[in-house]
Amino acid sequence: MKILICYFSGTGNTRKVVNKYVDSFVRCGCEVVTYKIEENNFTYNVDDYDYIGIGYPVHAFNAPSIILEFAKTLKEVKGKRVFIVKTSGEPLKLNNISSIKLKKILNQKGYDVTNEYHYVMPYNIIFRHTDNMAYKMWTTAQEVIPIDCKEILRNVPAELDSVFMGSFIAWLFRIEFWGGRFNGKRYKVNDNCIHCNKCVNTCPTHNITVENGEFHFGKNCIMCMRCSFFCPKSAIKIGLFEKWKVNGAYNFNNPNNYEDEVHKKYCKKSYIKYFDRCNEKIATARGEIAQNEEQEDEEVVKA
Ligand SMILES: Cc1cc2nc3c(=O)[nH]c(=O)nc-3n(C[C@H](O)[C@H](O)[C@H](O)COP(=O)(O)O)c2cc1C
């Protein structure tokens, strides 16, 4: 099977998840190609692939504008199968609505969205999860993704539960697209800046320029947070959302130092439910594997 996964990732969480998908599909004998949507030079022919994957981080209960714009450029097809993988910082059911607009665009073009999966990864805005939590999220996703890949390959459809008035709520939150542009122009760089130009060189929409040592933030910010998240001196002030800024990559490798979770109570029940659901899925898959192995052993003994 040939699979093309097109994705956007602001700060690396979705990229990690997509890479795990690639690894899992390849282990199942598939041929997989990935395309970074920000490269803006899509030359693949979707007809050459059996499945198209789309990966994105949830932004204000929606797919980011860069994803929707990309979907609009896809050619029309007849029933090409698509799966969606998305990451978000909290496991609230409201995040289920984030693909509504994307699915509408894809359906209009003749694509058939058969599966959608949601992985909780650490926040890149609002507050910083502890590295322990980031590790837990990532190890959980790594165990669940191969199971989800097999589900896709077995043609078992997977839909997220719908949410009452979901389309309307998602539409309301798409104010973030406009808000991002408005707020992005208000980004500022403070004196801690060492002029490494990492922000300029990595902005996915080339929205940051420097003239005579002065930084200029244009009108094409998509609020992905890459510039401020990876700034080595935390020198970028993110306008109205400065209090929600998260700076610095997470340590996803087993952190030894225990840090206290500052936001212990935030969405506590949803996080517990999310991990319980994942663990149940992992346990069921392990049970099925053990059962299959037992059956195979019995057949060998009989033969
Ligand atoms: C502008 C913006 C809006 C976000 N909105 C949501 C949201 O509605 N729900 C949520 O759970 N996480 C939200 N997040 C958190 C990201 O979805 C999450 O951290 C994601 O894993 C980041 O992925 P990336 O590293 O691939 O960009 C938002 C992040 C940003 C920057």
Your description of this structure?
The chain is of the alpha/beta class and 303 residues long. It folds into two domains: 162 residues, 3-Layer(aba) Sandwich (Rossmann fold), CATH 3.40.50; 71 residues, Alpha-Beta Plaits. The chain contains nine helices and nine strands. Strands 2-1-3-4-5 form a five-stranded parallel sheet, with helices on both faces. Strands 6-9 form a two-stranded antiparallel ribbon. Helix 2 runs parallel beside helix 3 and helix 4 packs across helix 9. It is globular, with a radius of gyration of 21 Å. The two termini are 32 Å apart. The model has no long low-confidence stretch (mean pLDDT 95).
Output the keywords.
five-stranded parallel β-sheet, alpha/beta, 9 helices, Alpha-Beta Plaits, single chain, 2 domains, two-stranded antiparallel ribbon, 303 residues, Rossmann fold, 9 strands, binds flavin mononucleotide, globular
